[in-house]
Amino acid sequence: MKPNAHLIAIPITSVGVHGGFRSNSWYKHRLGIFRNHTLKSLANQSDKNFLLWLWFRPEEKDNPITAEWLKAVEDVGLKYVASFNGLLYVDDKFLSYGLKTKLRNLGQMLWDGWIYKEWKSPRELWKYTWENKNQTLPQRLSLALGELKEAIGTDFEWVYLTRIDSDDMFHREAAACIQVVQPGWKKALVFDKGYIYNVMTGQVAEWNPPTNPPFHTIIFPARTFFDPQAHREYYGSFTSHEDIRKVFECEVLDVGKYMVSFHGKHISTAWHSDVLRKAKHVMQYGKADPFRGEEIPAKGYCYTTSGRNISTRWQSHLRREKNVMIGKEFEQEKDREKILAEFGLG
Q1: Contact 270/281 with Cβ under 8 angstroms?
Q2: What totals of helices (H) and strands (E) does the chain contain, helices first?
Q3: Is residue 274 pLDDT above 60, yes or no?
Q4: Can you give the pTM of this predicted structure?
Q5: What's the topology of domain 2-261?
Q6: How far apart are CA 131 and CA 19, in angstroms?
Q7: Which of 20, 171, 222, 278 is the most exposed place for a label (fewest CB within 10 A)?
């Protein structure tokens, strides 16, 4: 029996509203970021003993752009499995799925259609307004795990499941840091501080999130991992990357081993109008100014619409100022080049 399997899961579509798909222009834009940044960082790993597990919606099977995603991975020689079963854990945007959430989702789809000039049909708008993805998670997970078992087998003692977004990056030693940690029941590995990279301007800075960033590894006993019901139960009350320290026994790994990217088309950025964002903020929190200082860890809020998730915006949409989670900025070109080289962007 092999000691463990290391899977790096990348949710490509299916995250959030719109059914997890903004538009073909968004999909193509995301591919460029993935190919030129995320994929380069993964191909640059000092230890490549891992398998990429790419998550798509079923609808992407027949989208010709999907073939470009898969070819990009094949071109760098990394092993992968593609699942077309949507998101394979709970989506926190659907935890409370009442009328308010449905109206918000509809408004966001209409707004993004205006921004990207790619409109969904009335049928799609209706479907994605009323669809609660979490209800179908058990069936989707069962299908995906069955396909994964066929692809890689189950002859493992432990499975290390690492998560990274399709527009972010890992330091060249990230996989090695993860794989040397001894496994354990309900054990998870988290990274703390990292970097942020402004793709559009070339700026690089320290990234200091007040909550756990979306870079974590959950260690499963293999028998638990490949059993759909046991797999879901193992997550317990986990609904977001911010919950991981509450649910699992976490070991904090080295700092500076991940990099988030700012490229202007983030899923976490719901509204592009300052007036609307201010109005929403006032309704939710009773004031228009962003939370600051000691309030940030308490509220977990920083320039997002959810009130929970960490935004990767370089500047606030509310006050057009530097995001408070951005620390020291690396002004010297040689310093930026040295950091970027460690992420495969040399």
Answers
A1: no
A2: 13, 12
A3: no
A4: 0.83
A5: Spore Coat Polysaccharide Biosynthesis Protein SpsA; Chain A (3.90.550)
A6: 8
A7: 278
